[in-house]
Structures are given as C-alpha cells and as structure tokens.
Specification:
By secondary structure, the chain is of the alpha/beta class. It folds into 4 domains: 131 residues, Resolvase, N-terminal catalytic domain (Rossmann fold); 101 residues, Hect, E3 ligase catalytic domain fold, CATH 3.90.1750.20; 52 residues, no CATH class; 87 residues. The chain has 11 helices and 12 strands. The strands form 4 sheets. The chain has a 5-stranded mixed sheet with strand order 2-1-3-4-5, sandwiched between helices. Strands 10-11-12 form a 3-stranded antiparallel sheet. The chain is elongated, with a radius of gyration of 36 Å.
Length: 431
C-alpha cells in the first residue's frame, strides 16, 4: 500500500490577529519535528505571509489545487486556523476532508480525519472567523478612538517619523525643513508640481525606490492637512497633537495655487520702486523701468535698472535713460528737505507710547472677539455631531461641514497666537 504524502503549511501575517503566533521559522521547525515524530512523509512545504481572513490566498489555493490533483493526501499545520479564518476556505477544507480527498490533517495538538464529527471542526473554523470579525471591529474602534485623541493611527508622512519608543509621530528635523521649503516655494505660484518633485528629490525627499516623487504624490503632500496640525482618517478630519511644520496661512495659500492651476504661470514682473511716483518733466507721460544684466569675463554678473519716459505723447520727448542709483540720490536729496526737527522727537515718542497702549487694548479686544468666534465654532461642531448621531444629516455632508469648521477653527487659533505674540509689532520700527 502506497504511503500517505503530506504538505506542510506555515502561515503568519503582519496583522494584529497573528501577533501572538509563532514566527514562520518557529512553525517550520516545530512542524518538521512533529512530522518526524508521527512518521509523516512531507513532500513539500508551503509558506504564506498574509492574513487568512480573506479568501484567494495564492499559496493556499495552489496547495489545495495540488491536493485535489492527488499530489498529497494530508496536511501538517500548527493549528487549524492557520489554514482558514474565513468561511469560504474553511468550507473547502471541511468538504475535502469529508469526501476523503484530504485523509488527514495533523496539528501540534490534535488530528482530523474524514470519519470525525465535522461539528467540532466547524466550530473551530467558526470561532476563528468570529475572532477575526470581532478583532476587525475592535481594532477599527480602537483606531478611531486614537484619532479622536489627536494621534494619527498610521505611518508618518514625509517630514515626520514614527517614534517607536513613545508610539507617537514626531518631526524629522532634517526632512521637515525640506517640506517647509517646498510649501514656501509652491506658494509663490511660479513652480510646477514637477519642479517641487525635483526640489524634494534634490534635497533627499525621495520615493521608496529612491526616485523622484511622482506629481500625484507631490499634490498629495501639498494638500495634506497633517502639515498644519490636522489629519484625515477614514474620510474624517481630526485635530492632531503632533507639531505642525507649516502654519494654516501658508497651507491655504498653497491650496489656492493648487486650485487655480496645475501648470506653471508666467512670473509677474517685479514692481520697480520709483514707478508711479513720478512722471516725465518734459512731456508729462508716465515713467517705466527696465532691468539689464551684464555678464563679465571673470564670471561676475551685474543687474542694472534704468528708468525712462514711456514717450506715449504725441509730442516728441527728448529725455533719455536714468540709472536707478541716480534717481535714489535725487529722491534722498528731495526728502531731506522734509526731515522732522530733532526737538519734535520727544513729543512723538510720547504719542507713540499712547498709541502702543491703545494698540494693546485693541489687540485684547480683537483676541476676545476671535475667542468668541472659536467658541461659536465649537458649538456648531457639537450641533453637527448631534445631527449626525440622530441621522438627520448624511455622512458626506457631515464630513464636509466638519472639515470647513475645523479649518476655520485652526485659522482663528493661529490668528490669536499671532496677535498675542506680535500685537504691537507695527510700532517697533519707529521706536
């Protein structure tokens, strides 16, 4: 009589469900020893590193196909739940065992045969499946609770890193500066997504394959609220406890640029300092400016700005170019005629002190008003949650309104911080 052949099957996933399960190497070692002890002829070993909560596992399917082709009649595995944690695969195992295609399943603590009462195996598979379902629900609930506490339950985005010691997300000091610079660069409105991707690549922020980050990924980074202190999880916006890399004003500026276009715009001509302050003394037309660049043989580059009449008058104007340096000197001489006498300085200092105290009161009033706005937003968030719980508002509408309210709240928080920090900064240059 031909001896029975066995397949050895070891499985472990990275999911929470298998956290306490022996490693693949440990399973193989134990199962090989078990096969020798029981005198089982193992003709091939199958190793799978994925969860069994969903059907269509490639290694498992291959093993089952070969069993149905008669290449083996038995299976050696650590526990029955290594084979299946879902009703589809569990039902297939039970059916093949029941009709004799599988003649024997040996685990570390018991054996299964076609003549056995299938109720016991059904209960074990059912318990494994229910364990997975309960675990999924509990895990999802735990992750949502973590998000509500302000902790992002996922991998840190570029510019941050996961701190394994504290189980929190902290700033990557080097890469965070690159991310900040990328936001500032794009906010100017003259860079393409490709330019930002190249900038990130040149400064060490690359894809996992060490390539330049794709445009879609660049857009995702620039649109990610995580960088100003919020984060999205499960489609819902949460207030994070992590340290922001950028402020909300910069984020909003970048979103405006993203919304306006996805391609480069022509950089606007920089305004010249004296344009609009004077007109041509001969013909009365406006004055314009032009910048010229001179490249020297030694490699130095110089930029010169010249002002001239636009000469749009019907009469012929004879005025030529004037260098900016000459105009600056002329304006300085002109303004020196209007310098305030030094004896007025003390009186102005007193007036400035009065203005500064008034500014402090104005700042305090502004902060009070902003805090009232923020309290109003908190009340709106509470009412919105009540509507959602009562099922009086659709989830999409709830999420959309919540995002708007939290975004406004963050903007107000930063505005308050700026006022409290720099409330009278406008006076300092005069002191």
């Amino acid at each position: 009589m031909e001896s029975m052949r066995y397949f050895l099957y070891a499985r472990k996933s990275t999911d929470v469900e298998d956290k306490q399960v022996l490693s693949i190497e440990a399973q193989l070692s134990e199962l090989r020893a078990l096969a020798r002890k029981e005198g089982l002829e193992v003709v091939q070993e199958f190793v799978e590193k994925r969860s069994a909560k969903q059907p269509n596992r490639p290694v498992f399917n291959d093993m089952m196909t070969r069993i149905q082709n008669g290449e083996a009649q038995g299976i050696v595995c650590w526990k029955i739940d290594r084979l299946a944690r879902n009703p589809v695969d569990g039902g297939q195992i039970q059916w093949l065992l029941q009709n004799g295609t599988i003649a024997h399943i040996q685990t570390h603590d018991r054996a299964y045969y076609p003549a056995d009462n299938v109720l016991m195996m059904s209960m074990e598979f059912g318990m494994a499946n229910q364990f997975i379902r309960d675990l999924s629900v509990n895990t999802a609930r735990g992750l949502r609770a973590k998000a509500r506490q302000g902790h992002f339950p996922g991998t840190a985005p570029a510019g941050y890193r996961n701190d394994q010691r504290t189980k929190t997300i902290v700033i990557d000091r080097k890469k965070s500066k690159v991310i900040l610079a990328a936001f500032e660069l794009y906010a100017k409105g003259v860079s393409r997504l490709e330019d930002i991707g190249q900038f990130l690549y040149d400064n060490g922020a690359q894809s996992t394959q060490r390539n330049r980050i794709h445009n879609d990924r660049v857009r995702f980074i620039l649109a990610n609220p995580f960088y100003y202190g919020h984060f999205l999880y499960g489609g819902e916006l949460y207030e994070g406890r992590h340290t922001p890399i950028i402020d909300k004003r910069l984020y909003d500026k970048v979103q405006k640029v993203l919304a306006e276009r996805g391609h480069p715009q022509v950089e606007k001509t920089q305004p010249q300092v004296f344009c609009g302050l004077m007109s041509c003394g001969e013909c009365g037309m406006s004055i314009t400016a032009e910048t010229r660049t001179k490249h020297q043989k030694n490699g130095n580059t110089h930029h010169y700005t010249y002002y001239r009449c636009t000469k749009k008058s019907a009469s012929r104007c004879s005025q030529s170019y004037v260098r900016e340096e000459q105009l600056a000197t002329d304006f300085s001489d002109l303004l020196s005629m209007f310098v305030l006498p030094s004896e007025w300085a003390r009186d102005f200092e007193k007036r400035i002190e009065v203005d500064e105290r008034a500014s402090g009161r104005t700042t305090a009033e502004a902060v009070t008003g902003l805090r009232e706005e923020m309290n109003d937003i908190e009340r709106k968030l509470d009412r919105l949650m009540d509507l959602y719980i009562a099922q009086d508002i659709e989830r999409d509408a709830y999420l959309s309104k919540r995002r708007v309210l939290l975004s406004d709240k963050r903007s107000i928080q930063e505005h308050i911080a700026r006022l409290e920090r720099d409330g009278s900064a406008w006076l300092e240059p005069m002191l």
